[in-house]
């Protein structure tokens, strides 16, 4: 379908977006290709979280702490989510692309596609993402990764979509997901690799209701499901009926990360994170857990993610 193309400025940064009668999406190429808004135009629900402050967007540079970035909306993480040293390269926290300005393809924009590309500064990789509207409710994210080097490169790709939490929100995961392999958390004692039952690891604590066990005001947890047979996850509000679905090919993207934050940094948000490798550290994924994708020298790989706003 032919979408309405939006161009504007948000807090001084050029932003571009796509809109149908039912949904709209807005991104800022200059700020790591960050998607800052994903809205249901019928109910007016904004799915993406940002900090509750007037200056909630700003630019970052290489070496900046991700925790001091805007963290607003959707970031892309590649080739690692956690900071690590891999092949003698110091990979930043949340990867190499969130702090870079992306090159927006103006010709593709005229055709209703948000296509952006950038070359990573540390790893020999080139990353491209195209967003288009498939129908009034569905955004398709197409990804292409190219290895510009000569050697095989292990990598983790993970989409990092921080979503608002409203009363009545419930996470919906495939029936095959009955446990999570943990990577970390705050408020409860966790060792990397521990396994929790899903959705109720402890009596009275429901992860699917965005609850986190433990004590204190800064509770959070990160865990993984997979490898999966079904590439699907959703959030549905039991009061309003608002729903957000994610669909992907589990042969290409075998895992789902779940991040729930109930107070860390004073923030409350949840993220369903399809990913190609686990845990968050590329070094641990490649050398210890052996749960990783690789790309050969000179090769290109592609995968897709559908996001449905209903």
Account of the 3D structure:
With 310 residues, the chain is mainly beta. It has one domain: Distorted Sandwich (Beta-galactosidase, Chain A, domain 5), CATH 2.70.98.10. The protein is built from 2 helices and 23 strands. The strands form 6 sheets. It has an 8-stranded antiparallel beta sheet. Strand 20 (255-262) and strand 21 form a beta hairpin. The two termini are 17 Å apart. 44% of the residues are buried. The model has no long low-confidence stretch (mean pLDDT 97).
Strand percentage, roughly?
A: 35-45%
The spatial strand order of the largest sheet comes to 8-9-10-11-23-19-18-14
Stretches with pLDDT under 50, minimum 5 residues: none
Based on Cα principal axes, name the global outline. Answer: globular
CATH class: Mainly Beta
What attributes does this structure have?
8-stranded antiparallel sheet, 5-stranded antiparallel sheet, Beta-galactosidase, Chain A, domain 5
Topology of this protein?
Elements: E1 4-10, E2 13-19, E3 23-28, E4 34-40, E5 74-77, E6 84-86, E7 89-91, E8 103-104, H1 106-110, E9 114-119, E10 125-135, E11 138-147, E12 153-155, E13 158-161, E14 169-172, E15 179-186, E16 195-197, E17 219-225, E18 232-237, E19 243-248, E20 255-262, E21 268-275, H2 282-289, E22 293-295, E23 300-309
Antiparallel strand pairs: 1-2, 2-3, 3-4, 5-13, 6-7, 8-9, 9-10, 10-11, 11-23, 12-22, 14-18, 15-16, 15-17, 17-20, 18-19, 19-23, 20-21
């Amino acid at each position: 379908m032919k979408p309405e193309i939006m161009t504007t400025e948000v807090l001084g940064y050029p932003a571009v977006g796509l809109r149908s009668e039912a949904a709209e999406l807005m991104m800022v190429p200059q700020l790591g290709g960050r998607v800052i808004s994903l809205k249901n135009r019928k109910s007016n629900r904004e799915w993406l979280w940002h900090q509750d402050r007037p200056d909630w967007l700003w630019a970052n540079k290489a070496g900046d702490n991700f925790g001091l970035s805007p963290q607003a909306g959707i970031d892309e993480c590649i080739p690692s989510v956690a900071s690590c040293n891999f092949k003698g390269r110091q990979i930043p926290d949340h990867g190499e692309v969130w702090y870079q300005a992306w090159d927006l393809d103006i010709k593709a924009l005229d055709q209703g596609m948000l296509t952006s590309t950038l070359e990573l500064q540390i790893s020999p990789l080139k990353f491209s993402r195209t967003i288009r509207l498939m129908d009034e409710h569905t955004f398709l994210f197409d990804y292409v990764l190219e290895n510009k080097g000569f050697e095989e490169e292990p990598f983790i790709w993970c989409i990092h979509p921080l979503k608002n939490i409203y009363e009545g929100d419930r996470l919906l995961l495939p029936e095959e997901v009955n446990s999570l392999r943990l990577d970390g958390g705050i408020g409860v004692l966790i060792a990397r690799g521990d396994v929790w039952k899903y959705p109720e690891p402890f009596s009275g604590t429901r992860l699917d209701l965005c609850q986190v066990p433990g004590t204190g005001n800064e509770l959070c947890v990160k865990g993984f499901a997979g490898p999966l047979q079904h590439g699907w996850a959703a959030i549905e509000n039991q009061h309003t009926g608002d729903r957000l679905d994610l669909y992907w090919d589990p042969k290409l993207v075998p895992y789902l990360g779940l991040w729930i934050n109930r107070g860390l940094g004073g923030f409350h948000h949840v993220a369903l994170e399809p990913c190609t490798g686990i845990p968050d550290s590329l070094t641990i994924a490649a050398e210890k857990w052996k749960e990783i994708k690789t790309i050969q020298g000179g090769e290109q790989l592609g995968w897709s993610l559908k996001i449905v706003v209903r």
